[in-house]
Amino acid sequence: MIRIAHISDTHITGESAYKGYAYDLIVNDVNRGNFDFVIHTGDVTNQGLREEYERASYELKKIQKPLVVIPGNHDVRNVGYTLFEKFIGPLNGVYEFKDGVVIWVDSTIPDLSDGRIGGHKFRWLKAKLEEYSDRKFKIVASHHHLVPLPDTGRERNVLYNAGDVLDLLLRHEVNLYTCGHKHVPNVYRVEDLVVDNAGCTSCRKTRKGDVNSYNVITLHDDGRVEVRIRRVTGDELRKEHQPIKPKIFVPTGKRLLRIVQMSESNISDRIYFRRKILENVVRTINEKLKPDLVIHNGDVVDMGIERYYERAYEFYERIKAPKLVVPGHNDITYLGYDLFLEYFGEPEIIETRGFTFIPVISAQYETPIGVVGRIGQRKLAERLEDYRESFTVVVLHHNIVPIPRSREVGFLEDAGDVLRTLTAGEANLVLTGHGGNSFGVKVEKTPIVNAGAVSWELHRNPFGNSFNLIEVYRDMVVVFEVQATWGSGRLLGIWKIKGPFSP
Ligand SMILES: [Fe+2]
Ligand SMILES: [Fe+2]
């Protein structure tokens, strides 16, 4: 068993101003506790100034355990990264412990609050993950968050390449990602990866009037990863993740539903719209796949003008299966929102064979940034509660988890709160379609699947234009990605789901 104290965001200021009551409280707790080592995930100082680093190196010496310290965006202000190396230690590195390793990587960008593990650092991280692939416990530690967090206001400063990093960590079977930055303690399970955010240890800038806290991580010998969020008030929140045992999945019973999910057809007369591919897809859907439902996750047209909507309508009228279309940001440019309603109608809840499809509109006028809003989130939570007995599928345009190969700038401005609404409400499946690439991960109990671009040449998918074929069984969701030109398929994800529900 390995026990780790995870502290973060101490924001130590210069000697005169700094009052580290919470810091001393937590450090005493850490020193008394039976910890093997301590991880500090950055923002050690407040402005990266010399006097702050001098104070910080004194304060950090109070910790009587081996200590791994990662730089945060505040530490690199005023070219503080040179002082970080001088007063604290290397910006990137590896700490080995019994059965495991912590690989820490500097995600800061000088003078910005945003994060990035780009270029050389990404390759370095990949090389280290390969080097230590035999370790039972692989921990990656960085300052910036990887998946959107609740209660942080506007979603921003997630790693620019969060999708690539998430993909990398999942491929290398990393057990734990630890970070700080947003001053909100949170623990999510993403597939087999535990994403552990520390709150802030000694900064006054907490959210929602919260108090200072740190996280206690326990790595059990049987592979379980346990995280306790320990607040200075003494209350504790505990989460435990049992690792997924690799085994061959065989679905129980007959297939209950087959869904075709597509996005970004971007019908237009621009050269990037690949008309023949979309025609091919419509034919394949009608003649071969014969799904129970076709979902289009938005950006049906490239611009919200009548001529494009007319053509889009012609295309989708040809699909024989029932359809659910939610608007994307392209659809509601210009007069698009009115046209969308005229041609496709207000997206409505569809109930069929024990499934409930809940559309959510996230697109706004003239911006790729989406929002669900606090009222929208509350309505969504109510619907998930109302339809708890059925298999709930939430359908919206904007991606909620970061997508590989795209620059993540918080495309859904309240992604953190929406993600909490979905996971807390135990949505059975979430379908999104922004970012031009396909990706699927299960967060907590909810598989979240993003569709790539079906017929738009400007995409980010090495597999090409594609759509998803989703098959639901009583205890399993299987998602195949179908290449839109050749019809070849590949497995995008296979997830055990909580059954049985009564179809
Ligand atoms: Fe911070
Ligand atoms: Fe930060």
From TrEMBL:
Keywords: Hydrolase, Iron, Metal-binding. One of its GO terms (molecular function) is hydrolase activity. The keyword Phosphoprotein does not apply. Pfam families: Metallophos (PF00149). Residues 2-185, 276-434 form the Calcineurin-like phosphoesterase domain. CDD domains: MPP_1. The keyword Metal-binding applies. Belongs to the cyclic nucleotide phosphodiesterase class-III family. This is Phosphohydrolase. It comes from Thermococcus siculi. The lineage of its organism: Archaea, Methanobacteriati, Methanobacteriota, Thermococci, Thermococcales.
